[in-house]
Design brief:
2 domains; elongated; single chain; 132 residues; mainly alpha
Length: 132
């Protein structure tokens, strides 16, 4: 990591190799450039993001946050076995969604719920019109 990120971070010999460096930076600037999510698959990508975030949390002295990230990943993997896929399991993780977005998860959830209600209302009204 030091070799690849030395040019991108403020680092001095006396501070040590890890000071000022982030595993997420290495992941995004080195690993994923050569191995994009489309090539390595969604599961491997999410695994790398989880590990990078957990390592950054440990390096930053945030042990509880790191343990939380790892435990949620553990739960997600377990749930993926039980359901045979990642459609529900991915929601158990604390990592950000794969696609960049300004919209928060709770905002997306609210908008989805509103659209579902609107669709049900339109269908109900259409049924009433046919019944008349």
């Amino acid at each position: 990591m030091t070799r690849y990120l030395a040019e991108r971070t403020e680092w001095t010999e006396e501070e040590g190799a890890w000071t000022g460096q982030k595993v997420m930076a290495y992941l995004n600037q080195v690993v994923l450039v050569n191995n994009p999510p489309a090539k390595i698959g969604l599961r491997s990508h999410r695994e790398l993001v989880t590990l990078a975030m957990a390592l950054d949390a440990i390096l930053g002295g945030q042990l509880k946050q790191s343990l939380d990230l790892l435990m949620q990943r553990f739960k997600a993997v377990e749930a993926s076995f039980q359901e045979g896929g990642w459609s529900t399991a991915r929601h158990l993780e604390i990592i950000p969604p794969a696609a960049a977005s300004l919209t928060r998860e709770d905002e997306r959830h609210m908008a989805t719920r509103a659209e579902l209600q609107a669709t049900k209302l339109r269908e109900s009204l259409a049924k009433l019109q046919k019944a008349k």
